[in-house]
Amino acid sequence: MTPPHGAAFAPAPRFKVIVFQLIMMVKNNIVCEVCSSESAGKVSESFRASYNQTLVVLPSVEMYSCSQCGEKFFTPEQAKHVGKAVRVVVREQLGLLGPERIVEIRRKYGLSQERLEALLSLGSKVVTRWETGRVLQTKQADDLLRLIDKVPGVIDVLREIREESGHSRGSHRSALV
Ligand SMILES: [Zn+2]
Fold first, then answer.
1. 33 Cα to the center of ligand 1, angstroms
2. pLDDT tens-digit series, residues 83-104
3. Core-most of 4, 41, 61, 153, by most CB within 10 Å?
4. Model-level pTM?
5. Cα-to-centroid distance, 136 and ligand 1 (Å)
């Protein structure tokens, strides 16, 4: 009678645990984006970033570090998470209005996102991005939003300015024709 295949080499329980841990380590590693070896493991480190020229330091950020080439990188998911964390810190550091406050100010004057973009000479979808929190308004734009909020006449002045610049562009164009 021969024992079942491999039975003679059944590892001791402790060895089993070590093998299990090694497998887990290998499984947690992902392919390095630079050297393509499967040696990139998850680490948490401090991370410096700059947003609209504001420097922030996040004390603990999850990223991958490659033990082969030393490269550190983010997965798309991690990058998204870091981007969000950076915006939270910058918003706090600069004391910027939150997305919900921007919505409130805009609605107070019955403006659509497109209309507010036009009044502030902003590009398409900029207000949409502020209101979803995907993009932070600059400190200057934040000041202007606060001015609009606190001084009701400001929005009318902005309308006049847009009309004036619209007219001057119009007259300039007609002068050329
Ligand atoms: Zn590598």
1. 7
2. 999 999 999 999 999 999 999 9
3. 61
4. 0.70
5. 33
